[in-house]
Design a protein that fits this description.
Blueprint (H helix, E strand, L loop, with lengths): L4 H15 L4 H29 L1 H26 L4 H51 L6 H17 L1 H44 L7 H39 L5 H11 L5 H17 L2 H27 L7 H39 L5 H15 L13
Helix pairs in contact: 3-4, 3-6, 3-7, 4-8, 7-8, 7-10, 7-11, 8-9, 9-10
């Protein structure tokens, strides 16, 4: 028989070790906490790098949005036997033409409607002075002139700061020009060879996870194109709807106001609220309180139509994001990166949501689909089939 002393020693060792074993729930919570901390650390590092390279990242993201909008048009032209270079040029010319047309239209409308706005501004100012004198504030015209004179003196005393701000605006204009050139260049490259750029990016990852990265990227790209299409449709609906209401109640500068609403609507929720409040304020000041109430009703009607008709029909399941997630994403993005953060917050959340859902479902592990994806990837990249590793099967 074997001696019992080693068994007794092993038993004591097991008892000592069991004293330090945590309950299963605490152990699982600890493992989950470490993983969450690791993901948060990675996100912090990525956010820091993006913040340091903002002047490069922002033009690239804008180019992605423009490419997502123009790529279906160029693909449609190429499907009708247009040469690739001609389809890309026509798509870019259409985009530049639309933007230039909006700028010219705004400039023309402002130039033609400025005298009317000046006349209405004088009337509104006189009514405001009369309101201050007759209200419970009892601010006379002399007191108001004194306050305005003090404001002018403060502006004159801080002329140095204003001049410094003007220099900062000059530097910002130079950065804006450089960012515009980077955006145009990146858009042209991605329209011409976006598939090649993505294939090169996928090859940077280990072979075992390339199918997953490729599929997740394609799912994110489909979501981004759907999001851009929906946002353009929603923004156009907001601009046209509020512009029509402003036209019928006789507001000045209707076209510039509609274009401002259109551009601000690319920031979901927040942009619509801010521009709607601006439209109501302009109606109150330049037209009257009754017209202001009509504008408020029109703004609410347009937003209700957008929320309950346009977005459900146009968005569908491709860009399914809860409104609460949209609000928090816009708030967090604006807090972290200002206007660019608010602009890119929702598409970033939508794309990440689509990519995570794809990775969770793991469709690349299915034998039939993985073979199809492998053949499609090889055809797109022109890579050697011997270099590709076969997908794992469950």
């Amino acid at each position: 028989m074997e001696p019992k002393e080693p068994e007794a020693g092993k038993s004591r060792e097991t008892r000592v070790r069991r004293r330090w074993v945590l309950p299963a729930g605490i152990d699982a919570a600890g493992l989950l906490s470490w993983r969450i901390l690791g993901m948060v650390g990675v996100l912090v590092v990525i956010g820091y790098v993006i913040a340091r390279l903002e002047e490069i990242v922002v033009p690239f993201l804008i180019a992605l949005l423009i490419t997502a909008f123009l790529k279906p048009l160029s693909n449609w032209l190429m499907s009708h036997r247009w040469p690739k270079w001609l389809a890309v040029i026509v798509s870019l010319v259409i985009a530049v033409g639309v933007i230039s047309g909006m700028v010219v239209l705004v400039e023309t409308q402002i130039a033609s409607g400025l005298p009317d706005v000046e006349a209405r501004s004088v009337i509104a100012y006189q009514e405001f002075r009369h309101f201050l004198g007759s209200s419970s504030l009892k601010i006379s015209s002399g007191q108001l002139d004194t306050y305005l004179g003090n404001l002018v003196k403060e502006l004159q005393q801080h002329g140095n700061e204003i001049f410094t701000g003007a220099l900062l605006v000059g530097k910002t204009a130079g950065r804006l020009l450089a960012g515009t050139l980077l955006t145009v260049f990146a858009t042209i490259v991605m329209l011409i060879d976006g598939a090649g750029v993505w294939a090169w990016t996928v090859r940077l990852f280990p072979r075992g996870i390339r199918p997953a990265v490729d599929g997740a990227g394609q799912a994110g790209w489909i979501t981004l194109t759907s999001f851009v299409r929906v946002q353009i449709l929603v923004a156009a609906g907001n601009g046209v709807g509020i512009g029509l209401v402003a036209f019928f109640i006789g507001m000045p500068l209707v076209v510039p106001l509609a274009i401002v609403v259109f551009l601000a609507s690319f920031i979901p929720v927040i942009g619509a609220i801010v521009t709607g409040a601006l439209a109501v304020l302009v109606a109150l000041v330049y037209v009257g309180p009754i017209q202001g109430l009509i504008m408020l009703g029109g703004v609410l009607l347009v937003h209700l139509f957008e929320a309950h008709v346009m977005q459900p029909l146009a968005m569908g399941a491709a860009v399914k994001i809860h409104p609460l997630a949209v609000i928090f994403a816009v708030g967090a993005g604006s807090y972290i990166a200002g206007v660019p953060g608010a602009l890119f917050a929702v598409p970033t959340v939508a794309v990440l949501n689509a990519m995570v859902l794809y990775l969770v479902k793991r469709p690349w592990r299915l034998p039939d689909q993985s073979a199809v994806e492998s053949e499609a990837g090889l055809a797109a990249t022109g890579a050697d089939p011997s270099e590709q590793s076969p997908p794992q099967s469950t």
